[in-house]
Amino acid sequence: MLDGMQTSDPLAVRVRGLRKRYGSARSGYKDAVAGLDLDVSRGEIVAVLGPNGAGKTTTVEILEGFRDRDDGEVRVLGEDPRQAGRAWRARIGVVMQDSRDMNELTILEKVRSTAASYPDSRDPMEVIAAVGLAEKARARTRGLSGGQRRRLDVALGIVGRPELLFLDEPTTGFDPQARRSFWDLVTSLRDGGTTILLTTHYLDEAAQLADRVVVVRDGVVVATGTPDTLGGPGARTPVVAWDDGGVRRTERTDLPTAVVGRLMAAAGPGGEVPGLSITRPTLEDVYLSLIGESSPTDGVGTDNSSRKAA
Amino acid sequence: MSTTASTTGPDRLDQRQTTARRLPGTLRQGLVRGGVELLQFVRERDSVIFGFAYPILMLAIFSTVFGDDDPIVAGGMTVSFAQYFLPGMVATGVMLSTFQTLAISIAVERDDGTLKRLRATPLPATSYFLGKVFLSLVTVLAQTALLLAVAALAFDVPLPDDAAHWATFAWVFVLGTAAGAVCGVAYSSVPSSGRSASAVVVTPLLLLQFTSGVFFPVTQLPGWMLDLSSLFPLKWIAQGMRSVFLPDAFAAVEPAEAWQHGATAAVLAAWLVVALVVGARTFRWRRHDDG
């Protein structure tokens, strides 16, 4: 709905067979990214999930043009980040992890000077208000709290009116209320047509924000889907549990009501089934099983424990 | 440039449908960066005191301590200690405001994420350096003007009253500033981290101040030390400034017994060109150990 003139390509990001390895001939090579495929459609929020060292940040930094790759095909807004120029840069927004630069400037000065690099920037004060820092606009960044600093980072990332926004673990260190308001902000950006690629550790954040979740492990995608369908239908099969003479019994079933009916019948009229519960696996349960128990994927022949943190 | 009527609700941040607009010009962005640099500089009080005021304080302290009791005599001419000391402090100020400020600040900004953040925007690298050079120019001009004013008003140093000496001052100053600035950019890749930058940058420059005739006449130095210092810009800037602020008779006590304007211009121009080429090839947005 927003591109029209840019390109007919419906994909904001297209990655095929991406590989990146670290190390040297002497110390040996480690694959941080080992043949990763990723698509992000325009107007979509995609969350990349994975344990530390899974290759999330490396992948995102390659997409942002900060890192070179060893192999694979990468298109971001129709261009290869390796060769993309300033016009391409003006169309993407990057929210960094852990910034501590330009501390002597005020929030307004930072946002305004950043806006000056873009051809069609947003109004700096509007952006500052949107991230909830309007009252602090004339305060120096040195005195900001961690959460305020992250919101300033977001303001700097979106002031250029990007078509595609990279958010790298944006709410780390936020209190619950700040996370809520941050999620509202991200949702409003998406509603305004911005495509968002998000990396996060938080399952509830992915469930709340993402149209699609991509789980990365050992440098490859092990699962992808909406937060509700990730892991396939079997992953969400409810589990009925009850106590049977001191022994905990469980049954995975698509028909939990029928199981409960059977138990009720066995207990007799007015009888109680002790310890009865019906649970559906949460996104977190599905995620943990994906990164913990799924079989190793091909193309990963290296030592995981010493892999460079990504 | 794109202020829209402020509406309420999330649609404030609507993605605007635009035809391709032109990116802001390199020079304009350079000026914006220059403003940012200047703001940061004046707000960091320690850098103002130690970097900016250093040559002025040194001139004031040394001239007060040695005063008129210790006049310098050469070729039948006598000058006060302050007058003899002034050219070296002008030269030192040029190197501090250009080489030292740039090399340290770029190394620190590579470390603290400033460069990475700027690289994520369409800001051209040239604009970043224009901002740095702008700051260097403003500080070196203010610093030199203040230095000359203090020398003339507080220590009665006679300043040249003819166009020829001021013309010499102008080209030595401009060439020295330009060479110092590009050397600072090139040298910024040497410190391995922002934390080590001060030591790695200040120490060699401090040593050069002692061996380049800034603090005492170069004739007191051993020959090899003088030869070594002659490879670097500071010695030549100081010598050029002596030719401006000292009587012509003092040329006789220079090691070459002449002001050597030709050699001064050649050495400074050579540093300018070499550092420009080296700097353009070695400039890094990131640290050595960062991917």
UniProtKB/TrEMBL annotation, chain A:
Keywords: Antibiotic resistance, ATP-binding, Nucleotide-binding, Transport
Xref: SMART domains: AAA
Membrane topology: Peripheral membrane protein
Location(s) in or outside the cell: Cell membrane
PROSITE patterns, per the entry: ABC_TRANSPORTER_1 (PS00211), ABC_TRANSPORTER_2 (PS50893)
PANTHER family (UniProt xref): ABC TRANSPORTER ATP-BINDING PROTEIN
Pfam families found in the cross-reference section: ABC_tran
ABC transporter domain segment(s): 13-243
Designated name of the protein: ABC transporter ATP-binding protein
InterPro entries in the cross-refs: AAA+_ATPase, ABC_transporter-like_ATP-bd, ABC_transporter-like_CS, ABC_transporter_ATP-binding, P-loop_NTPase
Organism of derivation: Promicromonospora umidemergens
An MF annotation (GO) of this entry: ATP binding
Upper lineage: Bacteria, Bacillati, Actinomycetota, Actinomycetes, Micrococcales
SUPFAM superfamilies according to UniProt: P-loop containing nucleoside triphosphate hydrolases (SSF52540)
Nucleotide-binding as UniProt keyword: yes
This protein's record includes keyword ATP-binding: yes
From TrEMBL, chain B:
Matches recorded under Pfam families: ABC2_membrane (PF01061)
PROSITE patterns: ABC_TM2
InterPro entries associated with the record: ABC2_TM (IPR013525), ABC2_TM_bact-type (IPR047817), ABC_2_transport (IPR000412), Nod_factor_ABC_transporter (IPR051784)
Its membrane topology: Multi-pass membrane protein
Record bears the keyword Cell membrane: yes
Keywords of the record: Antibiotic resistance, Cell membrane, Membrane, Transmembrane, Transmembrane helix, Transport
Transmembrane stretches, start-end: 48-66, 86-108, 129-154, 166-187, 199-218, 258-278
KW Membrane (keyword) present: yes
Subcellular location: Cell membrane; Membrane
Signal peptide location: none
ABC transmembrane type-2 domain segment(s): 46-286
Family: Belongs to the ABC-2 integral membrane protein family.
Name this polypeptide is given: Transport permease protein
Organism (species): Promicromonospora umidemergens
